[in-house]
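Annotators were shown the component list below and the corresponding predicted structure, then asked to write short factual statements about the assembly.
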Amino acid sequence: MLPDERTTPSGEHPVRVEEDLLAARHAVRAAAVAAGFSIVDQTKIVTAASELVRNAYIHGGGGTMTVESVRDAAGRHGLRLRVRDEGPGIADVEQAMTDGFSTGAGLGHGLGGTRRLVDDFDLDTAPGRGTTVTVVRWKP
Amino acid sequence: MNAGLPILRLGDILLSGLMSDLDDKTALAFTDELTTRIADEGIRGVIIDISRLEIVDSFVARVLMQLAGTGRLLGTRMIVAGMRPAVALTLTELGLQLTGVRTALNAEQAMELLGWRRPAEAAEEAPHAS
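Structure shown to annotators:
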């Protein structure tokens, strides 16, 4: 079988149906274990991933998640998750980051809470343009 | 609808546990089944062991909080037992304190909270194999 160059080692995961939420979590867990994160860090990363893919599924009408192993200039290893959706986007980002705010089925801790579970957090969204959340957890 | 999760009855206590790959449908079906049984069987206490859960996200947290709230309205004490330390640390950072949910270190301590006592003297008197 020929190697598929479009597929990165960690790959892109669909977030289309409910079963994908579980599959995405498993993929992130496997990547976090492979990267050598502690149990606590694994738990934080997988929980962050769970929040993000659920947001994409519920608010964004589905999307994709990519998991990548990354390294910064100082040589630190990290795990980067990028969750994209083509949903309505977020009009009021500040409000969406506030604990207790939710327009869907969660507790409203999706974004504000998730940000505390990771080291880097980037939110790229605009009304009608979908939402992309990129997070990185670095190994201590 | 049946969630397919075992729910054991010990007197007027129900003992159950959540599995690591809890999906949304199962969680909701479990809530329905447990609530029905609490009412139908006059259940006084419910223990939900979550020691198998590798993560508790805001969805599962909400399920547990709703279960505890519903149980309380029905006059039942619900105790969530066996949360993994990593899960507890993560939930705290996520800002979810499981408000209104009674917790115990493990299922045995949850049983004690519900009034079950280990027969200590019986254990002491038990014959020891030599």
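Statements collected:
1. The radius of gyration of chain B is 16 Å.
2. Chain B has a mean pLDDT of 88.
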